[in-house]
Amino acid sequence: MDVSEVAPELQVAAGKPLLRLPLVSSNVTTVADALEDLRVRDSRGPLWLTIRDDRPSGLMFFRHCYANRAVAGTVTIRYRAPITNALNPRGAAPPLELRTEDGGFSGDADGATGRSAERGLDALYESGLYVMGGLVHVYPAPLPHEGFMSAWQGEPPFDARSLMRWTRTLYGSYLRFFRAPPGQPYAVFLRRNLVNAGGGVEVGRSFVGTFDEDTKEKDFELTLAHEMVHTFVGTLDEPQGLLSSWYAEGLAVYYQRGLPWRAGLIPTAEFLADLDTTAGRYYTDRLNDTPKREIPARFWADTRVRVLPYDRGSLYFAHLNAEIRRRTHGRRSLDDLVRRMIARRRRGQPVNEAAWIALVRQALGSRGVAQFHAMMSGKLVLPPSDAFGPCFERTTAPLRRYQLGFDSQVLMEPARIVRGLIPGSAAARAGLRDGDRIVKPVPQDAIQAQQRTTLTLLIERGGKTFPITYLPRGATVPAYQWRRRAAVPDRDCHL
Ligand SMILES: [Zn+2]
Description:
12 helices; binds zinc ion; five-stranded mixed sheet; five-stranded antiparallel sheet; alpha+beta
C-alpha cells in the first residue's frame, strides 16, 4: 500500500521528534519496522531521519523519528507499507494489522502520527481511521456518505449482505430509540481473523468484526447489536476504566437482546436463550460476590471476575427496570434514565457515577441508591420473576460451575506453567499435571457460559507436545433461569 500524508503548518525544533509510529499497538505488530521507501520533506526540501525505538514493553510502544534539522511548513510523508498475511507474532490481538484477502486489504491506519502544535496527524490518531480497499464488497451499494455503511473482504461462510441488511435495520431502530440525530456515518467492517475469530474492535464510530470458517450469521447478529449499543451509550467519565464497566457493558448486554427483540429482529426464543446464557454464567459464578473495587486488579487474571461487569451489570439494569416500572405502573422505565444520561452528554454535562446515582434517587428514592451500592459491593442481584415481561417467569435449573482446574493466573503469564492443579478436578482427571507448559493461550469468557463445551489445552511436557481435552466444570448448583410461560402468546410478550 502506498501511503502519502500531508501535515500542514508543522513547526518542529531540531532535536525534537518529528514522527512517532507504534511498533506494537494493542498487542498488534505494525508495519512500522517494515516500511519501504520512507521519504519525508518540508517546504525547504528533503529531510533525513534518525530513528530511536522504545524498549518493548506492554501492549503499545513506539518508534520515534528525528529530522536532521528544524522542520517548518507543510510536511509530506510517503512510504510503501508491505502487506503480509503472517500471523501476529504476539498471539491473540484485535484485527488491526494490514492484511489482504481475495484482492482486498484492510488495516488500522491510526499508526503513523506526527506532532503538531494545534492540529495535524495527532488528530488523525485520536479520531481513529480504519481503511479497507481494493476488491471489497459493500452494502448498501453504492456506499452512502452518511448513515450506516458496511464493507467486507473475502468470502465469509455466511450471507454477509443479509447480515448487513439486518444490522442496518437495527441501526435505524437504535437511532430512534436513543433519540440520536441521523446522518452521522457509522461503518461496519468484516474480515477474517485467524487467531481469535468472533470478536471485534471499535475504531472511532466504526466496528471491525471478525469471522472464520465456523462463524454463524446468528452469533454475529448479537455481537453487532452489542457493539452498536456502545456507540450510542458510551462510557462513564468517572470513575474511569474497569471501575465503571458495569455501566457500559451492563447496558450493552441488557440492550443487545432487548432492542433487537423489541424491533422484531430476533424471535422471543432467541431473546430468552441469550438472557439465560447471561443468567447461567452469573448464578454459577463462584466469584459473583466480588466487590466492584476488587475487579480491576483481578480482571485479567480470572475469567470469572472478567465477566462480572457484563453479567451482573445487565441483571442490575433488568432489576432496576422492573422496580421503576412497578412504581410508575409501567409509565416509566430504565430507558428514560439511559436517555437522560445520553442527553447529559449532548449538553456537555458530566456523565459519571454521581449523575447516575442522582437519577436513580429521583426514580426510586434511597431504596434505589441502596440497591446500587449493594450491587457494587457484590451482593447477589436477583431481578423479580416478571422482570422481563409477562411471557417469562423465574425458575432454577441445576447447572455446573465453571472450573478451570488450576490457578488461572498462569494463563496470563508468558511462560504459562501449570500450578495449583485441583486434585480430582476434570483437568486433573484428564491428565494435566503441575509443571506442564501450556503452549497456546486459550480464551475462556465464552466457554464459561457453555455448560457442555470442552476446553483443549496444547501441552508441552518432557519434550513432547500433545493436547489435553476436558469439560471445565465443577460442582452442580441450582442457578436462576427464566422460562417461557406457555399461556401468554408471543404478541403479548413485550412490556
Ligand atoms: Zn462490550
